[in-house]
Amino acid sequence: MAPKPGILTDWPWKPLGSFKFVILAPWVVHSTYSLIVMGEGERNFYFLIFPFLLMRMLHNQIWISISRYRNAKGKNRIVDKGLEFEQVDRESNWDDQILFNGALFYIGYMIFPQAQKAPLWSTNGVVMTILLHAGPVEFLYYWFHRALHHHYLYSRYHSHHHSSIVTEPISSVTHPFAEHIVYFMLFAIPMLSTLFTGTLSMASLFGYIMYIDFMNNMGHCNFELSPKTLFSIFPPLKYLMYTPSYHSLHHTQFRTNYALFMPIYDYVYGTMDKSSDTIYETSLKRPEDSPDVVHLTHLTTLESIYHLRLGFASLASKPHTSKLYFWLMWPLTFLSLIITWIYGHTFVVEANNFEKIKWQSWVVPRYTIQYMLHWPKEAINSMIERAILDAEMRGVKVLSLGLLNQGEELNKNGELYIRRYPKLKLNLVDGSSLVVAVVLNSIPKGTTQVLLRGNLTKVAYAIANTLCERDIKVATLYKDDYEKLKLSLSSKSTSNLILSTSYAQKTWLVEDGCTKDEQLNASKGTLFIPFSQFPPKKMRKDCFYHSTPAMITPKSFSNIHSCENWLSRRVMSAWRIAGILHGLEEWNVHECGDKMFDIQEIWQASLRHGFRPLTMPA
Predict the structure, then answer these.
(1) pLDDT tens digits for range 97-134
(2) Is the dihedral of CA 326, 331, 334, 338 positive or negative?
(3) How far apart are CA 346 and CA 20, in angstroms?
(4) Which helix (H) or strand (E) is 57 found in, with range?
(5) What angle do CA 61, 63, 68 make, to 5 degrees?
(6) Regarding beta strands 550-552 and 571-573, do their DSSP bridges make them parallel or antiparallel, or are they unpaired?
(7) Considering the entire predicted model, what is its pTM?
(8) DSSP annotation string for 319-335
């Protein structure tokens, strides 16, 4: 929000929150009814308004996803500065302008009866729309935009938009309500002119709005996509169409490149930034980034695709929780399942810079449930293997395996790939040492006994061994687990391993194998500390549940504006952090299979680089 918000800054339906679209409900219902009862052969322009609004939202979302994907890869990126959660929150109301336009379209349809008979096409109307946009609309917008940069209006209105130095497509419509009123008045010039001259058509109206949306999104996408050949074939085009790099300069320099979509007025009035051509050329030639560290993760639940950074920005910026409205989106969810099933290659979802390394997150397009089945395992392993070889070819130094990509049954904690490719130059990391360190440091001070429950993984054995060596009693509930753990302990520490006959321990270290009944038998006030990839289902309201192994990232860790699955903002799983630490410290070792890095050394390295432990649950 602007530092000195002026009148009409907030949208009038702000108090409705996520229920704001209910204001369109009466018109949507009435237009649907009109479609049902209208005579055969009649066109219902009235009914098309709502589907058109939905199409605009889909168009914007496609731009968001493409922009975030291209910026993560780095190719043709214009501005390198990262995004933050504050910007995502500020731009989360990007659909307000579509709602505003929709309400005005419905009102206009009711006020002007001639709009009800608009044909599909009118050549005169299309030509008039083009000319009126290039003339009065672009001219008036240019001078209004310059006025917005006067300190009085800028501090009260336009600074809200310019808070986004690094723009996303939806930054284009992130303005106070008052600005949108003026913008609509400008864009209404061609629409009302064609209406009153009897040349309005669906093509000129809907086409003009889609042109505005397209150019707005393109100008704020932060990657250059305008091919140089266009300007070579038709040189005057540089005065009639801006490029993403052209408008990006306006957000970094503030006092240049004021034009809406046609730079001609910047040239006429001397406000064209002199570095526009240089930035354009540089951005076009910029190659794809070569990361130092890659984290390989995968999709979890079916709706997790919406929570990806490439999905819905507002959802990705919050911890993953299931929403009721996801049920209404099942056709889209099912389509995404089919696409990911067919698409057999990993893809980039996130890129960050931290200290001296470039870091990327890649996603295997498979869901957790597919990892649980036996028959897809070979295909999943092949995708992981191709990702490792691709990373090797790109010069990646460290690749960390996240979630079930390091499953013991799937690939023996990554050892399978080391055996197949013993000459790998990159280091493969499963992050187990930092996971153990985080769990150990999550146990409350003064604890003398813990209950270890769940599948006996590589991490479980390391936790039990370390605790027993520290003279902390480790209890198990089952004799089989007790015997297996005992074989892994030294003779001096076996006395600290006990076979428990009760559930009295106040600190439980749990993995996926911990059952519902076991949780229900725990004492009131028990602290559950998971050492698993996935959080346990919380069965008790009178107990405490710690996060899965994770740490808070340093403030210097840039471009973090999405949450990692169920974790809170700026919290990163230990498996991810481990790969980053291996890259920062340049440890030239694999940590996969049965191998585990020094627990104390990696814990000290995490603190040294600014990662902080999560606080205990209250």
Answers:
(1) 999 999 999 999 999 988 888 899 999 999 999 999 99
(2) negative
(3) 37
(4) helix 45-73
(5) 100
(6) antiparallel
(7) 0.94
(8) -----GGGGGGHHHHHH
